[in-house]
Design goal:
The chain has 371 residues and is α+β, with helices and mostly antiparallel strands. Helices cover 17% and strands 24% of the residues.
Length: 371
């Protein structure tokens, strides 16, 4: 889904092998934007989800990019429809194979409403004392699709995962804007919350083209947004074209020839310079070419990721935060992973890196995105 994606303090999400079954899982909600680039048999869209610890792989091989005169909302719905069908086909195949039980929930798609209720810190709607009705506000994502799936313990491939026969690593070539979050039931026993990251799942590093398929400068974005904090000044799609309350999103514009690691390192520096004063920090891990959000996501926050550069492979990663009893075993796995992979020294860093560290975190959206 790549996207809003919903998005591991330090190295909590790095697994040396397999995925522990962390309880019943949480509810994944992913709001999708329009596909800016196509998914094809040669470069498919691959969603990887772990449902109660079982790896599910959904593949979309025939998805056109947003078409002329197609609204962003319509293109996003078309993409979400294809993803839901692929996810549910994979779940049903797992049920048939006996790896998931009968009755496992399927993914559903809904359309974002025109208004959303204001909620308190416990997630309950705030009631108007006069009308006795929930207080609502305009929804800046109205008309865009949201995919919902319960029982999810992890979105994306764990770093160190080795695909088996017929398996692929998570991949989103569509360059779509989107966001996702995992919300876990209180007292569920599976984890204490959700953490997010942007990762390079492949075994070799990508190289930036510096331009998207339309010929515009490519961009890579990472951050958090909270729809409860947004107001009428916020654009209907992210990343914002101007500072927007509730959005904490940094964007860099890769130079041709930059590697995934260099782009994520730049993005980490920019994100921290912009938002550390807001209590948000990100850590770049050179061992796994991953950018981790240090803070745990609240139920109101979604991880935001976007990559419009066709030469880079950067995908969202969301995980439950394990119970304290799980952390010791996970730490042992991290130590083994670090010993196996070692430190990859980065070479040939472009001399213009410093210029890309500027506090530039927005740009005009392509014309075909505008309503």
């Amino acid at each position: 889904m790549g996207r809003l994606i919903v998005i591991i303090a330090g190295m909590l999400g790095v697994l040396s092998a397999g995925v522990p079954a962390w309880g019943q899982g949480g509810t994944l909600t992913a709001t999708l934007g329009p596909p800016l680039m196509p998914a094809t048999p040669a470069k498919p869209l691959v969603d990887v989800l772990y449902i109660n610890g079982v790896r599910i792989q959904a593949v979309v091989t025939n998805l056109a990019a947003i078409m002329p005169r197609e609204t962003p909302q319509a293109a996003a719905v078309r993409k979400a429809t294809a993803e839901v069908a692929a996810i549910n086909a994979a779940i049903n195949a797992a049920i048939t194979a006996g790896t998931l039980p009968m009755g496992t929930a399927l993914a559903t798609m809904t359309i974002q409403p025109n208004t959303i209720p204001l909620r308190d810190s416990n997630g309950k709607p705030i009631i108007d004392p006069v009308t006795k009705l929930p207080i609502v506000k305009p929804n800046n994502l109205a008309g865009f699709p949201t995919i919902t799936l319960t029982g999810v313990t992890l979105l994306g491939d764990p770093m160190g995962f080795k695909p088996g026969a017929g398996q692929q690593l998570a991949s989103n070539p569509t360059g779509e804007i989107g966001g996702a979050k995992l919300v876990f039931p209180k007292g569920g026993g599976g984890g204490t919350g959700a953490k997010g990251a942007m990762v390079r799942p492949g075994g070799t590093s990508g190289v930036a083209a510096g331009m998207d398929l339309s010929g515009a400068p490519s961009s890579v974005s990472f951050g958090v947004f909270n729809d409860q904090g947004q107001d009428a000044t916020c654009a209907p799609m992210l990343p914002p074209t101007s500072p927007c309350p509730g959005d904490f999103i940094a964007t860099v514009f890769p130079t041709a020839g930059e590697t995934d690691a260099e782009v994520l390192d730049d993005l980490s520096t920019l994100f921290n310079s912009l938002f550390s004063s807001d209590g948000l920090n990100a850590t770049f891990d050179p061992f796994t070419d991953s950018l981790f959000l240090d803070q745990q996501l609240t139920p109101f926050e979604s991880l935001f990721t976007q990559n419009t550069d066709p030469g880079l492979e950067l995908d969202p990663f969301l995980s439950s935060v394990p119970q304290p009893s799980t952390l010791l075993l996970l730490g042992m796995g991290l130590a083994g992973l670090a010993g196996v992979r070692g430190y990859r020294r980065r070479q040939g860093r472009n001399s213009t890196t410093a210029a890309r560290q500027e506090r530039i975190w927005y740009r005009d959206l392509p014309l075909h995105w505008r309503a």
